[in-house]
């Protein structure tokens, strides 16, 4: 009897949740734009933190570097792609409509951004003390990619690159995305 009562209550709860999910409206376009903009600002601030540590290696703190990399990791990839999965018409949006037409390309860029951030996180975890020379670019280290040809490559390829080397194409990835999918000011 208890089991039957439990199953009936569970079934009723599932039905209520299903009804509520169809009644609760999805976030307004402005809410999605606000979320996207907040994530973009957080990623820009994180990139600025990492950049500052490369400009002044004495300021390197592994936990702050890792936190900044994690901010980018957590807001890129499928999270970033989902923010642009459907047309959002809002006067606050700076996104171009071609994101929907070229969603596969946008998804690849978002994934590459995440892959770079994951590699930067690993560099911070592997270097808890002062910034070692191994995190810095070496003279003659090829940049590769260019502003419109960035691609993260495999985890193995990224694992042998210096963190600073990884950081530069990560920034190029942001530039590529903005050039292709953001209304210029």
UniProtKB/TrEMBL annotation:
Gene3D superfamilies: Cytochrome c/b562 (1.20.120.10). It comes from the Bacteria. GO terms for biological process: electron transport chain. Pfam families: Cytochrom_C_2. One of its GO terms (molecular function) is iron ion binding. SUPFAM superfamilies: Cytochromes. Residues 125-153 are annotated as: Disordered. Residues 1-28 form the signal peptide. Keywords: Signal. This is Cytochrome c556. It comes from Rhizobium multihospitium. The lineage of its organism: Bacteria, Pseudomonadati, Pseudomonadota, Alphaproteobacteria, Hyphomicrobiales.
């Amino acid at each position: 009897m208890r089991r039957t009562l439990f199953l009936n209550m569970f079934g009723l709860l599932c039905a209520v949740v299903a009804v509520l999910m169809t009644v609760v409206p999805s976030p307004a376009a402005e809410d999605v734009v606000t979320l996207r903009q907040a994530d973009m600002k957080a990623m820009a601030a994180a990139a600025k933190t990492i950049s500052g540590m490369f400009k002044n290696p004495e300021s390197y703190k592994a936990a702050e570097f890792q936190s900044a990399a994690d901010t980018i990791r957590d807001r890129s990839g499928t999270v970033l792609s989902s923010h642009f999965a459907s047309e959002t018409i809002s006067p606050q949006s700076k996104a171009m409509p071609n994101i929907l037409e070229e969603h596969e390309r946008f998804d690849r860029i978002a994934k590459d951004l995440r892959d770079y951030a994951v590699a930067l996180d690993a560099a911070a975890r592997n270097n808890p003390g002062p910034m070692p020379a191994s995190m810095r670019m070496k003279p003659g280290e090829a940049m590769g990619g260019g502003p419109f040809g960035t691609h993260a490559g495999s985890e193995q390829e990224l694992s042998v690159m210096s963190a600073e080397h990884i950081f530069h194409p990560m920034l190029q990835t942001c530039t590529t995305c903005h050039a292709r999918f953001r209304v210029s000011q």
